[in-house]
Amino acid sequence: MKRKISVILAVLLVLSVLAGCGASGGASYDAAKSENAYAPGAPAPAPSEAAYDEEADRPASGNDSIAGSGFVYQTDTDLASKIIYSAYLQIETTAFDDSLAALNAMLGANKAFLESSSTGGASYADTYYGRQTYRTAEFTIRVPKENFSAMLQGMSEIGNVTRNNVYSENVTAQYTDTESRLATYRVEEERLLAMLEKAETVEDMLTIESRLSEVRYHIESLTSSLKNWDNQVNYSTITVYISEVKELTEQPELQRSYWQEIGDGLRLTLKRVGRFFRNFFRDIVVALPVIIIIAVAAVLVIVILKAVFGKRRRAERRLRRKERRGKGSGADAGTGGEA
Question: What is the model's pTM?
Answer without folding.
Answer: 0.55
